[in-house]
Amino acid sequence: MPKLTIVAFDGTRHDLEVATGSTVMENAIRNSISGIVAECGGACACATCHVYVDQSFADQAGKPDPMEEDMLDFAYDVRPTSRLSCQIRMSDALDGLVVHIPEKQG
Question: Which CATH class is domain 3-100?
Answer without folding.
Answer: alpha beta
